[in-house]
Write a structure and sequence with these properties.
3 helices, conserved putative lor/sdh protein from methanococcus maripaludis s2 fold, 6-stranded antiparallel barrel, OB fold (Dihydrolipoamide Acetyltransferase, E2P), alpha+beta, Elongation Factor Tu (Ef-tu), domain 3
Length: 375
């Protein structure tokens, strides 16, 4: 009998501890305070403007004047190609232009002479016509004067045609000179904007061809963090919003940024879209492509009821919490507002001073009306 009595007593103690003993919980007093609502996305550091510096002509690379990590300015000389042959071609084009202009000057002089000869022949023809009309000279003299006038007119037309041809040669020579000078300008390669050299691909000595990469250049004025954000946050995002960027190389520090643009295509698998945030400040050591977490501010409140998000539970699609009601855990539905990184705004269901409880053992769950022991 004693043995059975002990067993019953032990069973009673176990049942009491399981059913009626207070559950150890931690309590959190609901308070009012400021709250910043943020949307988080994970992405990489990118540059909005990236350029491959390459030659426009095939030639020998003479010098590369910058190296990796060098900061360059707009118009700075980056590389030079061999310009010996192209300079000779420019000299030939200049000489051809001088010759064409000289020819044009000569034919204009010939035109002046031809005009004078034509004018003289016209006067002689008019004089012969008057004399023949008055029976002073013969018809043969008049025919000779007419023939000389026709010859003078043909000579004038020929010189005028020669002028047109000479002027065309001058224009062609000018265009050829401009073309050769343009090709000569391709032997010097300048930076198209302020930026930084991220990679040097070629060294002097080899022959480069159009499209081959000499340098990789990025604009440091537009460094973006491209983050993937869940599509459910799209309604609260817009360009110009303030953001914080945290790099994994410095997880304890945030860098300021601004939303530059929103992507217009959602990934069919992850249901996320890209948000580009322009980073206003960068770490001392940064690399294009490094991972970053982006927190975009979507709202701000100065004084609201604030509750840690970890205390909120969901039942049948309704958010709620357990509140300490005289030593018993009572379920209370709540309505949430702004969501911050760790805290959330409670718009309905709680009041300042209410104590929200949570089991100390994360594996344990509370039930409505269960006795609790608050620490």
């Amino acid at each position: 009998m004693i043995k059975w009595a002990v067993l019953v007593l032990i069973a009673g103690v176990v049942v009491y501890r399981l059913k009626f003993a207070p559950v150890p919980v931690t309590g959190h007093a609901v308070q009012t305070g400021p709250l910043v609502a943020e949307v988080m996305g994970t992405g990489v550091l990118n540059t909005h403007i990236k350029t491959t510096i390459s030659p426009r002509i095939q030639e020998r690379l003479v010098a590369v004047l910058v190296d990796q990590n060098d900061v360059v300015t707009n118009g700075q000389l980056l590389a030079r190609l061999d310009d010996g042959e192209l300079k000779q071609q420019v000299a030939v084009a200049e000489a051809t232009l001088v010759s064409a202009k000289a020819t044009a000057t000569r034919v204009r002089v010939d035109e002046s002479r031809a005009k004078a000869m034509e004018q003289q022949a016209r006067l002689e023809q008019q004089r012969a016509t008057d004399l023949a009309r008055n029976k002073v000279s013969s018809q043969a003299d008049l025919d000779k004067a007419n023939e000389q006038l026709r010859v003078a007119e043909v000579d004038l037309q020929r010189t005028q045609a020669a002028i047109g041809e000479a002027e065309s040669q001058v224009i062609m020579a000018e265009k050829n000179l401009a073309y050769q000078q343009e090709r000569l300008s391709y032997t010097v390669i300048f930076s198209p904007y302020d930026g930084m050299v991220t990679r040097r691909d070629l060294d002097p000595g080899g022959v480069v061809v159009p499209g081959s990469s000499i340098l990789q250049l990025i604009s440091t004025n537009e460094i973006w963090a491209s983050a993937w954000v869940d599509e459910t946050a799209a309604a609260g995002l817009r360009p110009g919003q303030t953001a914080r960027v945290m790099f994994r190389s410095e997880p304890a520090r945030s860098y300021t940024g601004t939303v530059a643009r929103l992507g217009r295509e959602t990934d069919r698998e992850t249901r996320e879209f890209v948000v580009d945030v322009q980073v206003r400040e960068l770490p001392a050591n940064w690399t294009i492509g490094q991972r970053a977490e982006v927190y975009i501010e979507t709202g701000r409140a100065a004084s609201v009821l604030v509750l840690p998000q970890r205390l909120v539970q969901w039942r049948a699609g309704q958010s709620g919490v357990f509140v300490n009601n005289g030593g018993a855990a009572r379920w209370r539905a709540v309505t949430l507002g702004l969501r911050g990184r760790e805290n959330v705004e409670v718009t309905q269901g709680l009041a300042a001073g209410d104590q929200v409880v949570q089991p100390r053992d994360p594996k344990q769950e509370l039930t409505d009306g269960q006795h609790i022991s608050v620490r």
